[in-house]
Amino acid sequence: FADLEETFDVLFLCTREDRDLGRALPKLKPWAKKIITYSGSDVLLKEKVMQLLDGEVKQRTSGKFMVMGSFITVNAALSWMDRNKK
Questions:
Q1: What pLDDT, on a 0 to 100 scale, did the predictor assign at position 32?
Q2: For residues 15 and 62, what is the distance between their CA atoms, to the nearest angstrom?
């Protein structure tokens, strides 16, 4: 992140329920105007990530977004992008 000239509008940090996000948040705060976190079961994670993306992208159609998390999180973001291709 050190080379970034601009911050992200929204940074999504989503992971399984057995992970602690507490130490990561202070380090990420300078790089995003808004940080959304979610920690939940593998079963719910994919759908929740897609819901969060839907809500934020509707508010900021030209925003800069970053999604971070587990492989499940990345898969959910890629699925969301495929579903929302124009």
A1: 92
A2: 25
